[in-house]
Amino acid sequence: MCLVKTVVPHILNADCNTVGMSFPALPRGKGSEDALERRSIIEQTLGLKLRHVASQSFEADTASKNIENFIGISQVPLGVVGPLRVKGTQAKGEFYVPMATTEGALLATVNRGCSVVTSAGGATCRILKDEMTRAPVLRVDGIEHGIKVIEWVKRNMDRLKKEAAKTTSHGELLSATPFLAGRNLFIRFSFGTGDAMGMNMATIASQRMCDLIEKKTGAITISVSGNMCTDKKAAAINYLYGRGKSVVAEVNIPERMVEEKLHAKSSEIAETATRKNLVGSAMSLSMGFNSHFANMAAALFIATGQDAAQVVEASMGITLAETIGEGLYFSVTIPALEVGTVGGGTGLPTQREALEMMGCYGKGKSSKFAEVAAALILAGELSTLAAQAKGELASAHRRLAR
């Protein structure tokens, strides 16, 4: 085996005495032999034995579309919460929900919320909107040229839809919203993407449409992603218009149940939600008017093969609580929940099994999955706010996570 030496010009890890060392190039193949060779090079070069990294349950080829330079597996503890009763249009009944995390106390917290939601009759969940977006930025000659390009786009929507359709049999262009700033023209394309999360689908279709717009208008595409999409960043445009699936969930809980199971009063939870989630978030100019959407979203995303970076967008949203009659009304609004049940990491063996646990793997299941996800986030928010209302959060972490 001929190893090409390359010099790494920066410090990798001072504790491993790698400063100034020469490192061999790694093979670029996708098969199991290439993965073994890469891992052997790393072990020999750094003087390590990657026993656990090497303990995988599938061949390297299985992940060839998900990762490059594959050397093994990074394992995250997987747990389950539930049963969680969901009353959606697609998700109906009780579910055990898998969550992968390294944060102690998280699943215990969420599981308590699941118990309360289920005992109260379940979480009502609805999808308000389902569109994936990509927003290219084009350079125009000036304002007048920009307006002409916008007018061309509006007149030729049917043509653009046909152009997008040439790139996918599953996606569909739904709308194109222009934004002009000087010589910068942004066109925020919205797509229906079926059961895929759809980011790659939207990108490929957007590039195809940009090529046509360039040819017909003289505008120049600078980037197929102009950051008005907005992907993997907290953004007001996603908050207002949504991205992926915009989902709401609610539950009504009798006062007796609130006090017995959450050890708090409805009025205490409602006040905590207002002063913490609404006032506190406003004071900090946060885009997350909630306790910890990201915790539930991240654990569910990792377990089920979603794009973990899109937890940034899933973290935005509002948790509301108020007393109604003799009980508590509790709801979450999640404007940008980007999930899929086909494509991406959903087909990896353990991720597929996690989706199958909920009956959410494959075609026709993405809306069902989004409703379960919304109910999970609702349960986690409910339990956490109750714990904070009664000063139990620190003690729970002290007991379970230390």
Task: Write a concise synopsis of the structure shown.
Helix content is 40%, strand content 23%. The protein has helices at residues 32-46, 106-119, 143-155, 157-165, 199-217, 236-241, 255-262, 266-283, 293-304, 311-314, 349-357, 366-389, 393-400; strands at 5-7, 22-24, 78-87, 92-100, 123-134, 137-139, 172-181, 184-192, 220-223, 244-254, 288-289, 317-323, 327-337.
Could you characterize what this model shows?
The protein is α+β, with helices and mostly antiparallel strands. It has 3 domains: 30-75, no CATH class; 78-130 and 244-400, 3-hydroxy-3-methylglutaryl-coenzyme A Reductase, Chain A, domain 2 (Alpha-Beta Complex), CATH 3.90.770.10; 136-223, Hydroxymethylglutaryl-CoA reductase, class I/II, NAD/NADP-binding domain (Alpha-Beta Plaits, 2-Layer Sandwich). 40% of the residues lie in helices and 23% in strands. It has 13 helices and 13 strands. The protein has helices at residues 32-46, 106-119, 143-155, 157-165, 199-217, 236-241, 255-262, 266-283, 293-304, 311-314, 349-357, 366-389, 393-400; strands spanning 5-7, 22-24, 78-87, 92-100, 123-134, 137-139, 172-181, 184-192, 220-223, 244-254, 288-289, 317-323, 327-337. Strands 3, 4, 5, 6, 7, 8, 9, 10, 11, 12 and 13 form an 11-stranded mixed sheet that branches. The protein has a two-stranded antiparallel sheet with strand order 1-2. A hairpin with a 4-residue loop joins strand 3 and strand 4. Helix 4 (157-165) packs across helix 5 and helix 9 (293-304) runs antiparallel to helix 12 (366-389). The longest helix has 24 residues, at 366-389. The two termini are 47 Å apart. The model is unreliable at 1-16 (pLDDT under 50).
